[in-house]
UniProtKB/TrEMBL annotation:
Source organism: Geodia barretti (Barrett's horny sponge)
Domain annotation ABC transporter: ranges: 3-237
Record's keyword terms, sorted: ATP-binding, Nucleotide-binding, Transport
Name by which UniProt lists this protein: Uncharacterized ABC transporter ATP-binding protein MJ0089
Source taxon at top rank: Eukaryota
One Pfam family this sequence matches: ABC_tran
Gene3D superfamilies (UniProt xref): P-loop containing nucleotide triphosphate hydrolases
Molecular function GO labels: ATP binding; ATP hydrolysis activity
CDD domains per UniProt: ABC_Iron-Siderophores_B12_Hemin
């Protein structure tokens, strides 16, 4: 599967949110991190790739423009994990994962579907939640179920918007280990939006840095995770060092912008 994004523009009403986004063909089997500050346009871009929004420009999936794919084809190929997943209170975890798998196919449930659901719950180490109702789960548990729903569909393109934002440290690593394994094992294209740049540095092979609806930079970690980028895009002074195991480590030192709550107004 090939995914490319060329000169994509999107506006909500009169406000342009994506202003000519171009991302060359992404490598299957590797994780690409989409990073950038709040409101940069990351979620909007994901929604365009998932076919939920109709932008100008071109998004090509498997050699064909997204507009030439039917809704069913896109849903079958692209799995999109939103930042906040809606929770249906009357479903158990197992039912919710099964429903996600059956989303685009026939409603007949095969043994293979049941096995795939059980397997993904086991892989994510949440099989003990199988019979619990979604509305009884903690924020992190709900996020784990959403991840199971995204993975169980076995997509060609996996879009995950802040998949680890509610997870504890161990779960963050376990989930991203699994996503990396699945991405490499199935040769799929995985785009993950992450605010934690150190997690992104650990797991992503390629970065797209978004700022104010444009691509500020793209490339490998050492090319884009620089003190200059962190100052320009995030407005922070930071050091970027390489750990003994070769992983980049970003340490923020302070904000260079005058914004946020005024301390003198609080005391
Ligand atoms: N449904 C909408 N209607 C109008 N404006 C929207 C809508 N959704 C998002 N926006 C605006 O589009 C811009 C980009 O939002 P988007 O959610 O794509 O950013 P993001 O990079 O994912 O941000 P964050 O890191 O905060 O999740 C923001 O200014 C936001 O207010």
């Amino acid at each position: 599967m090939i995914l490319s994004v060329d000169e994509v523009r999107f506006s909500y009403g009169a406000v342009t949110v994506l202003d000519g986004i171009t991302i060359g063909e992404l490598d299957p089997g590797k994780i690409t991190a989409t990073i950038g500050p709040n409101a940069a346009g990351k979620t909007t871009l994901f929604k365009c790739i998932a076919g939920l929004l109709k932008p100008e420009g071109s998004i090509r999936l498997g050699g064909k423009d997204l507009r030439q794919h039917s809704r069913e084809e896109i849903t079958k190929k692209v799995s999109y994990l939103p930042q906040e997943s809606p929770v249906n209170a009357v479903l158990t975890v197992f039912e919710a994962v099964l429903l996600a798998r059956k989303h685009t196919l026939s409603w007949r449930v095969s043994d293979e579907d049941l096995r795939a659901c059980a397997q993904i719950l086991e892989n994510l180490d949440i099989e003990d939640l199988s019979t619990r109702f979604l509305n009884e789960l903690s924020g992190g548990q709900k996020q784990m179920v959403s991840i199971a729903q995204a993975l169980v569909r076995e997509p060609d393109v996996l879009l995950m918007d802040e998949p680890t934002s509610s997870l504890d440290l161990q779960r963050q690593l376990e989930v991203l280990d699994l996503i990396r394994e699945v991405t490499a094992g199935r040769g799929i294209i995985t785009l993950i939006s992450l605010h934690d740049l150190n997690l992104a540095a650990r797991y992503a092979a390629y970065f797209v840095v978004m700022d104010k609806g444009t691509v500020y930079a793209s490339g490998e970690g050492h090319q884009v995770l620089t003190p200059e980028m962190l100052r320009d895009v995030y407005g922070v002074n930071a050091t970027v060092l390489t750990s003994p195991d070769g992983i980049l480590q970003v340490t923020p030192l302070g904000s260079v912008r005058k914004r946020g709550p005024r301390v003198d107004a609080l005391v």
